[in-house]
Specification:
By secondary structure, this protein is mainly beta. The chain has one helix at about 15-20; strands spanning about 5-10, 35-40, 45-60, 70-85, 90-95, 100-105, 110-115, 120-125, 125-130.
């Protein structure tokens, strides 16, 4: 059975008072509780989930033409999913984006709520506040 990860971006403009008054307490097209939702299914047998707060996330890849990079991003909340073969799947967000999470190991579900502010999503499951995104990974940004 796969591990299900749901990520919700909270709509900072949502008004429960408006919903109560005009929509019988329900959200509406013009008053949505969440801006968006991501759903991911992590394949393989997850043996353990470790949550690290205020941790350092290492993002690495290739910028093209054989130009690899590895950049450290501080102040991240990281969910480490350790698989049966000891490989690792990570879901992470900036601490400044983190609102709360619910982890139900027996049902294999992680629900993560993010604050509604600008962010980058360079890799599925990785959410970095725009103001904290590494400048060296933004070619158009100059110091």
């Amino acid at each position: 059975m796969a591990f299900l990860v749901n990520v919700f971006m909270i709509n900072e403009l949502y008004s429960q008072e408006f919903a109560d008054t005009h929509q019988k307490g329900e959200e509406s097209e013009d008053n949505k509780l969440f801006e968006w939702e991501d759903e991911m299914s992590l394949k393989g047998e997850i043996m353990e989930v470790d949550v690290e707060r205020d941790a350092e996330y290492i993002i690495c890849g290739d910028q093209g033409e054989g130009n690899p990079f590895e950049v450290s991003i501080p102040k991240m909340c990281i969910f480490n999913f350790i698989k049966e073969d000891n490989s690792l799947i990570q879901i992470a967000c900036s601490e400044s984006l983190y609102e709360e999470h619910e982890l139900i190991i027996n049902d294999k579900i992680l629900t993560l709520f993010l604050k509604g502010e600008p962010y980058a999503n360079p890799i599925p499951g990785i959410y970095i506040a725009s103001r904290e995104f590494p400048k060296e990974l933004m070619p158009s940004v100059r110091d």
